Amino acid sequence: MNKGISLCMIVKNEEDNLNRCLNSIKDIIDEIVIVDTGSTDKTIAISESFGAKVYHFPWTNSFSEARNESLKYATKEWILIMDADDEFCSEDKEKLIQLIDNCTEENLLYYFETLNYSGSFADSNNISINLNPRLFKNNYGYQYEGEVHNQLVNHQNNKRDVNIPIRIYHYGYLDTNIKEKKKRERNISLLKEQLKSEPSNKYACFNLGNEYFALDDIHKALNYYYKSYEDFSPNVGYGYILIIRIVIANYYLGLYDKALEFAETGLQYYPNFTDLYFFQANIYKSMGRYTLAIRSYEKCLEIGEAPSELKFLYGTGSFKAIYELGNCYLELKDYHIAFRYFNDTIKAKKDFIIPVYRIAHILKEEQTPLAEFKKVIENFFEETTRAYIIIADVFYSEGYYSSALEYIEKCEKNGINSEDIMILKLKALIRSGEFEQCIQMNTLQKESTFYMNASMYKVICYLLSDRKQLAESVMNSFDCTTLSNSNHKMFDVYKQFMNLLNKEPTQVLSEDESEKGYTGFILEICEILLINKKFDEFEVALNLLNLISDKTVLLQLGKLYDRNGYKDMGKKEIIRSIKLFEVYDKEALEILK
Description:
This protein is α/β, with parallel strands linked by helices and about 600 residues long.
């Protein structure tokens, strides 16, 4: 057996990911073995450009079979397992080299940390962590079992495995990758087939729960988690994740008592599991029990980040707990302490900018003079020029539209002129009553994601400056048959608004109570009119709410009134929402207080 490391991978149509993966590891491995299960893109060519040995294997609906096929061709002493949508952490390469050099005969298998990105882009603030077997001795009886989330097993020896803080970033659960590969539907189908032949397989139940959870079908997820939890043993490798998944699922469903019950159970099994304390605190905070929430968040900081074998979420023992402490004190309106915690959050995690928005809200609540307000916010950014767009958005979010425009102008003067800046400028202009400037902005192309929004803002500006024919001209420039579903709904809302202003017949937009797609567009029109004190037009726009069946409209209208300083009107609409539809939430109850 030759010394060194064989990288073993299974791939299919991974041209968008493979370069990143292989570039991250090519300088510290000795052999690349790739088993391709039917690629039709440039995957094979990319593999060969890195000197990989490529083997073809027909897909059998079993990841384990494909993975075991790749192990057959490894010729080096150690096998490293990665997926095409992985990236080896550059800071940990030396750790891997030292690990190989210093390993003993007792250690044949090593678990590394997989840091999973989720959401729309790779953001270090939105990472979940799990341990995966990544490095093991070749020809020592290791093989994979299980169709989807395959497990590495060894029926020949019981040598101990070791957890090593070596990090591998995983991009496979970003929204774009999931959408392209339809990973969830595929995995669910394979896992259900596995359960038909192995109905008592608790690991398959656990993974099915995870797939449904990712699809936001929390009830189904919880059902499978409970099946996996039957006759629970804390020694099972995924046990701590199962417990916290049950806690989170109950929390999302509003079953707070059940969530707390499982959190307490989990902490008896895993007393250093920081994430459990963190979600325990989240539950208390949602229940308005801030003293208990603060105590649990402080416990997170006392423990610190969980040990490798109990890591699940990134930051719960550091910046996330500090941030949530700030939120607790903000809810309690103790602005001084809240400010301190938000400030400490930024010190702990400089790229985590949400606390800046919270601090801006505190400054507004305390009626901080604008010059001082600006100075405080600017001081959070080392390089202000690049931060102007964030600062502009901060001021926009707090209703300082003229100040937002000042920072947008600074962006433009410094050559920063993205589509995001343009649409933020349009929003700030129209809310500042700068209708003519809004009309004159013609910088967005028809292909732009924001083109429809920009056009509808022009429609409002024309209508409010009594140029109805020009508004109609903009509307007539669109071919409704080519619009996306969301843009079509936006168009329909503005069309009915024009009909109301022109005292022409209107059409019902939706009779489906679950349809929420029109509501946001209607309320934005109402907000623009209210901010600009166009009360006559605002009264007309309120009739748009009669064209939909969304029962949350009175609640949202009440919040809109309250947000813009019309406190009594806000309370009135929230009370109507409760009386007519029994619809309210925590924020509404705070407004009524």
